[in-house]
Design a protein that fits this description.
Layout: H1 2-11, H2 26-51, H3 55-60, H4 64-72, E1 80-81, H5 84-94, H6 103-125, H7 137-160, H8 169-179, H9 185-204, H10 210-225, H11 255-283, H12 290-306, E2 313-314, H13 316-324, H14 331-346, H15 356-370, H16 373-382, H17 384-399, H18 402-422, E3 427-431, E4 437-441, E5 452-456, H19 468-478, E6 485-489, H20 498-513, E7 517-521, H21 525-534, H22 536-540, E8 545-546, H23 549-558
Helix pairs in contact: 2-5, 2-10, 2-13, 2-14, 2-15, 4-12, 4-14, 5-11, 6-11, 6-12, 7-8, 7-15, 7-16, 7-17, 7-18, 9-10, 9-15, 11-12, 16-17, 17-18
């Protein structure tokens, strides 16, 4: 019954990203879709190169997959298509299993998309959408920076017209440096021309498709000057027409070799897509459903796997392109798919003249854009520990591998979360003006009032950090004026596990033996239920719980027995 219930819930969100359509906005949406096609076509050709698949597969990523998400996703803004990070993960996972660009390689890429889709749909069924929050922004920046370095270095050989040599980013760079004397001047000139056109155009305006101008320009020059006859590598024939639709020609046993790759793809798809959808929904004060988007992303990857292309995910760059062009619904993305249909049916023939070095230059710039130097520097300025985490993640991608980098990114995100909750920032509340409070770092000698401490614990109480509470109490009472009341402010406590509950029992016994009254304030209803189950409410009595710190102060001042209490 659960899958049926979820399916029925999802049906209510179908076409949410498109409807309602405002007739007066249709021309703007169509123009935004055409703009996305103009800017996105050169990009997806580059992503196909990163993935190691034929360039036609890049075009396929924004045909059916983009249209499928437009219909079944809930976000009105998220653009789904090929992406550099997932393309790099895919290439790393398939390397060694098949010859680059071969039919078997493409089939394995399609199988990876289907496996990633199964993870996405399973995540929807068992409600794992919250996992998107476990890849922190810090490690995601580090991961993308590492991917950017790897992608950019991987294109230098084609930009110079040399072989490039061994695999591995560092080894590849060493080999390229050795082969620089053999570089082709014409090939390098083409690469530099493409870079100049793209960067120059972007400096003038972001609305003009510099990459498209550069690609079309090099195709025209290649055709006119017969580059292939001059020894300059070109793409060669690109299949015309629609992709073949059907299951990839592989043995399902091959799936065992791709499970880890698909899991890595799933994590990046989930994190990057959810973050992008959330950002644009907040920008326009709109609702979106992460669970519905999981279904849309899963179906988009099924469409990718069945149409002979590779994995797709929510793309921040493409989403920003549509938003800048004025697109506000998925009608723009459907327009882009329509433009791609025309290109595939009638306009693929000229692509055979595209110089390999020109495409490598486009991909090189994509890689460079992923290297978040400014954001890494910003992290360093404010959180040096998080900068180290981001740097380690980037280094793992560059020197070990993309899959290992994403695994490390997940582990470091969890460690970073545990580290913060393990040693929370605990404070003491101090009254200022009536009804107002300031906080000061918890420490010996600190008091809210003479004989009273209102102590705010800065995280959920659980087995790893519960020891901090009695340690802080010892620090409080060993230095400073005698203590009569100790109040635990639970406003930051979202959960109390069994071990922490036992710690509260021991704290109560210790304080009681010293004639210090323990009470709690700002306790959420679900925490009260937990405390009831642990027997702590019965232990302390209902009078030990106060709605707010001001109520604690009022009760403390009225307590006739506090003058006779003593400290530890």
């Amino acid at each position: 019954m659960m899958p049926v219930k979820i399916f029925l819930q999802h049906q209510r969100h179908v076409l949410q990203g498109i409807m309602p359509v405002v007739p007066s906005r249709i021309p703007t949406e169509v123009l935004a879709g055409v703009t996305l096609a103009a800017l996105g076509i050169p990009e997806v050709l580059g992503y196909a190169k990163i993935a190691g698949t034929p360039v036609s597969t890049g075009l396929y990523t924004i045909l059916l997959p983009m249209a499928v998400f437009a219909i079944f996703g809930s976000s009105r803004h998220l653009v789904v298509g090929a992406d550099s990070a997932t393309a790099a993960i895919l290439a790393a996972g398939i390397a060694g299993l098949a010859t680059l660009g071969s039919p078997r390689y493409v089939a394995l890429a399609s199988l990876s998309a289907l496996l990633a889709a199964s993870f996405l749909l399973a995540a929807r069924l068992i409600r794992l959408g919250f996992l998107a929050n476990f890849l922190s922004r810090t490690v995601l920046i580090g991961f993308l920076t590492g991917v950017g370095i790897q992608v950019a270095v991987g294109q230098v050989a084609d930009m110079l017209g040399v072989r490039g040599g061994r695999s591995g980013t560092l080894q590849k760079l060493v080999d390229i440096v050795k082969e620089v004397p053999d570089a082709s001047i014409l090939t390098l000139a083409i690469s530099l021309s493409v870079i100049v056109v793209i960067l120059g155009t972007s400096r003038v305006t972001k609305r003009v498709p510099g990459a498209l101008i550069a690609v079309v320009g090099t195709i025209v020059v290649s055709w006119a000057a017969n580059f292939s006859a001059r020894g300059i590598a070109v793409l060669g024939p690109v299949p015309q027409g629609l992709p073949h639709f059907g299951l990839p020609d592989v043995h399902w046993a091959d799936g065992r070799s791709l499970v880890a790759t698909a899991a890595s793809l799933f994590v990046v798809i989930l994190a990057q897509s959810a973050a992008t959808s959330r950002a644009y929904a907040a920008r326009y004060d709109e609702e979106f459903s992460e669970n519905t988007d999981l279904v849309g992303l899963g179906l988009a990857n099924i469409a990718a796997g069945l149409s002979g292309t590779f994995v797709v995910n929510g793309s921040p760059t493409k989403t920003e392109i549509v938003d800048t062009a004025g697109g506000r619904t998925q009608l723009a993305q459907l327009t882009t798919s329509g433009v791609l249909l025309i290109v595939l049916l009638f306009l693929t023939a000229p692509l055979k003249y595209l110089p390999t070095s020109a495409l490598a230059a486009v991909v090189f710039l994509i890689g460079v854009q992923l290297i978040h130097v400014r954001q890494m520097r910003a992290i360093l300025d404010v959180r040096r520990d998080e900068f180290i985490v981001a740097t380690l993640t980037a280094a793992a991608v560059v020197f070990i591998g993309v899959e290992q980098g994403i695994a490390l990114a997940i582990v470091l995100s969890l460690i970073d979360h545990i580290r913060h909750s393990y040693h929370p920032r605990n404070t003491v509340l101090i009254p200022t003006d009536p009804g107002h409070w300031r906080t000061t770092t918890a420490g010996s000698g600190k008091r809210t009032l003479e004989g009273l401490i209102i102590y705010r614990f800065g995280a959920s109480l659980y087995f790893a950090n519960a020891h901090v509470l009695p340690e802080d109490i010892v620090a409080f009472v060993n230095d400073g004026s005698p203590l009569s009341w100790f109040c635990l402010d639970a406003s930051a406590i979202g959960d109390i596990d069994y071990s922490a509950a036992q710690t509260l029992h021991r704290v109560h016994q210790t304080l009681r033996s010293r004639c210090v009254q323990l009470c709690l304030t700002n306790v959420a209803d679900h925490i009260l239920e937990e405390l009831e189950e642990y027997g702590i409410i019965t232990l302390l009595g209902p009078d030990a719980f106060f709605p707010a710190p001001a109520d604690v102060v009022e009760a403390y001042r009225k307590d006739p027995s506090r003058s006779g209490k003593r400290s530890l």
